[in-house]
Amino acid sequence: MVDRHEGLTGGLTNYGDREFARYLRRSFAKSMGYTDASLDKPIVGICYTESGFNNCHRHFPELLEAVKRGVLAAGALPVPFPVISLGEVFLSPTSMQFRNLMAMDVEEMIRAQPMDSVILMGGCDKTVPALLMGAASAGKPAVLLVAGPMMTGRHKGERLGACTDCRRFWGQYRGGTIDEAEINQVEGRLAVTAGTCAVMGTASTMALIGETLGMCLPDTAAIPAVHADRLRAAEETGALAARLVGSNQTPDKIVTAASVENAMRVLLAVSGSTNALIHLTAIAGRLGIDVDLDHFNRLSDETPVVVNLKPVGQGYMEDFHTAGGLEGVLRAIAPLLDLNAVDITGQSMAERLAKPLSDPIDRTYIRSAEDPIERAGGLIALNGSLAPGGAVLKRAAATPGLLEHEGRAVVFSSLDDLAARIDDPDLDVNADDILVLQNAGPKSPSGMPEAGYLPIPKKLARQGVKDMVRISDARMSGTAFGTIVLHVTPEAALGGPLALVCNGDRIRLSARDKRIDLLVDEAELARRKVEFRPDADVPARGYQALYRRSVLPATLGCDFDFLRAASSTGAEGEPS
Ligand code: FES
Ligand code: MG
């Protein structure tokens, strides 16, 4: 049972008369029908993100009931409260622009309201990062409960899962191999249940990272949204949050250099979403822990890819769950993990791995380190004259023949320019060229959308071209694939080398050397740099103005400069 709690009197503002403030707060709480017995209990806040604009969270009412059951049975009072919910596909210009807004909402509402511990309910792409960022800064004991992945649909005997298959069918439609009637049919069969995207996209990757960081109950990240086990996990999460009351298990005790490194290992081993690197950097940055790209590459060189899921491999998250889930991955890379990391239940990684497995691991979806999908390098960071501050490539999702490639740049100066010209039959483009998109980074008007997956120009798609080297300062959906260089830093809007690329320049990608180079001599680049004019059209008011002023580069997690903690290396605040 719980003790040492502040309950409803936590954080009371009293203006000199504490008893009056207490009496007033209790009387308003009583208007909600609570008895004294309820109001005397410790309070477990529940950050609740159900929204009519968030399909992934549509099962949250049922999940919330289970959470409350767990909290109540363990002797605390569950109190849900709304925070911003980010439904990935409904936000414009991009959900990424609102992650920090949600993180601020989460942080301030956890801090401002009387709760002794908090449950973070989220799942869809940016919600888990925002919840963890906010909770890390708020500093109260917190536990994450994720939505869980969607189940797959069926089309002509084939399984479909959002949203890797979305892209495959759209590619076929663009290429003219399926017709409008069929694409309309597919549209209704891609996302068929509650839960997050069914593949190893950003939401799935972040759920696994949340568990690896130690912020969820073990073995719960991959349980499908609609599975009864998820309701049981919710009930147990409620009980755990009640047990956390009065403890000193605040997020800074859980999210440590050790658990962050383990999370990077898992990101690499599952060949997860490139977005997760940004989010993990932002979460760690809230606690003064740096995620450095050279360090990431060293880990990448030694961490095998062991998960065979779309978008890179075969299966879906429901397969991953039954194959052994995160536990299977942790066992496969156990010798690489920092065993001292401790999770929210108080268990160390060493203790977790010492427990016997309840089921054998299904090697179709989760391989061993001895028989991996790839020996190393599922994701790599790139350096070079085009990205002196760094860039990211999901090597495992690339076409092997394009990993060492030199080609002619075909440049698009903005998203509008891309939309206007990519399908122009007169566009001067060949399959060997490199598509370059400028001005889609964090400081651009679009706020770093998932535009890095540039479409293959229609005339090339019709010839059967499936992949080309594509480079931008944008992000890519975790469910996408291709030879795609992302997060180029410094970004074009800040006048980075990416802004200076012209049509016809030669660019060389070498995944082996982890380099991306613009083969233009320095004198010519210096000349172009003089001509560079930053976008003068900056938003003058509101959140958009705050965002543009404060957002940090991808290499610092795109957090706001005033939200990152001071780090040991002083990396906060300075664009690199
Ligand atoms: Fe919510 Fe993909 S749309 S996780
Ligand atoms: Mg996504």
UniProtKB/TrEMBL annotation:
Residues 41-351 form the Dihydroxy-acid/6-phosphogluconate dehydratase N-terminal domain. Keywords: Iron, Iron-sulfur, Lyase, Metal-binding. The keyword Lyase applies. Residues 366-558 form the Dihydroxy-acid/6-phosphogluconate dehydratase C-terminal domain. It comes from the Bacteria. Pfam families: ILV_EDD_C, ILVD_EDD_N. Belongs to the IlvD/Edd family. NCBIfam families: PRK06131.1 (NF004784). This is Dihydroxy-acid dehydratase. It comes from Mesorhizobium qingshengii.
